[in-house]
Design a protein that fits this description.
Elements (H helix, E strand, L loop, with lengths): L2 E5 L2 E4 L4 E8 L5 E9 L5 E8 L4 E3 L7 E6 L2 E6 L8 E9 L5 E2 L3 E6 L1
């Protein structure tokens, strides 16, 4: 069974920075991609950033140039800079294995105050 544990969320003022980390454990037979999603109150979960096994990265437009996703083995991090209140939400880590279904962490709350 795969487990994803996120850390690094919290409360920060507008313009500040946070760094989220997520470490996977368990039986993982190859990782295709790891990603971060955000779910704001009353909204659906949306992709924020993804990094593939080849190192290719994808960002949603609203965070492009402000967030940086990186991965080292089974750990994915999201460096978030110049935060705005619109970045507030629960951030979920996901792991897409080469074989099997996408796995999810429990989420970490990020709150940006204006």
């Amino acid at each position: 069974q795969v487990q994803l544990v996120e850390s690094g969320g919290g409360l920060v003022q507008e313009g500040g920075s946070l760094r989220l980390s997520c470490t996977a454990s368990g039986r993982i037979l190859g990782i295709s991609a790891m990603a971060w999603y955000r779910q704001a109150p009353g909204n659906q979960r949306h992709l924020v950033a993804r990094v593939t096994s080849a190192g290719n990265t994808t960002y949603t437009d609203s965070v492009n140039g402000r967030f940086i996703i990186s991965r080292d083995k089974k750990t994915v991090t999201l460096q978030m800079n110049s935060l705005t209140p619109d970045d507030t939400g629960v951030y979920y880590c996901s792991l897409l294995p080469v074989f099997g279904h996408e796995e999810w962490g429990r989420g970490t709350q990020v709150t940006v105050s204006s």
